[in-house]
Amino acid sequence: MTRTRRSLLAGVAASPALLAAPAVHAQERIRWRMATSWPKNLPGPGIAAAYLARRVAELSGGTFEIQLFGAGEIVPALQVLDAVGNGTVEMGHSAAFFWQGKNPAANAFTTLPFGPDPIEHQAWLERGGGQALWDELYRLFAVKPLLAGNTGPSMAGWFKRELGSAADLRGLKIRAQGLGAELWQRLGATALTVAPGDLLISLSSGVIDAVEFLAPVNDLPLGLYKPAPFYYAPGFNKPNGAAEAIIHLPAWEKLSPAHRAMLEAASAEAHARGLVEAQNDNAGAMLELVTNRQVQLRRLPADLLAAARQHARDLVQDLAAKSELSGRIIASMEASRARARPWRRVTLAGSLAMQGD
Fold first, then answer.
1. CA-to-CA distance for 300 and 237, rounded, in angstroms?
2. What is the pTM for the complete model shown?
3. pLDDT for 206-220, tens place per residue?
């Protein structure tokens, strides 16, 4: 056999491997942009957004990259849903109650006054039919939602002056979000919408007199205690702090099942990590605020809490009456909570008894 023929046959024999080799390197590569409603690396939601992007890259072996943008870098904080829905970006990280102006039922997927805590909320989404209703609502905006972070229960907020009774809320200007904003208004305050990155300057300049944001670890780096040293609990207005990953629906539908699973897994991890971080880090941040930053912890007056609870019941009923879909969302959430309430009472009472509280 001639050298030329041997070389030709060797080439043919090797051809299957040669033909297969490009397929190994031709894995689908995805490059997305994610707009967020937070300053980059803001403790809590900002960190959850960064973790989500990093984790998807890890799970995909670097073939699925999500470039993260802080609030205002592509669109303002409160325009993330629009940017995702119209395809300006493929993905966003935000909180559902920012969209109550588009559909009031969105509040249910972040928090409701005196509503579910983080575990109750997640149980409803994953076992009580809540996710299907969330998908149905967000389909109206051409968006797919995923639970993707949680800052836990919030404090009631930062106030420039002490509150002696519910009457002290009259005329007070407070930054508030979601259905909680309407609740503060019914209590006599004026609720205003302010993006997280503008809270300190708005509080310092007198645009607002009080701020409800999140919890100690999230509030501390914003410096809200400087102009408003009175820190009130309990956070009846926001007992849950769910964040969302929102995905342009056509982009979601084009993803392979494997890439969808990566996004779902990374989002679930971001939610779980957020709750662990909140539990651990809020303790240290609270100690820092009280010990070294001269913050005055206060409990809301009893008459204010009683009035707030009654107004909250009325607000949720009003929300349920907004539309047929809103009614189904609220009914589903309340059914899930009612089913779990006996067990919750047993475990909560047992926990308090064991701790001596």
1. 12
2. 0.83
3. 999 999 988 999 899
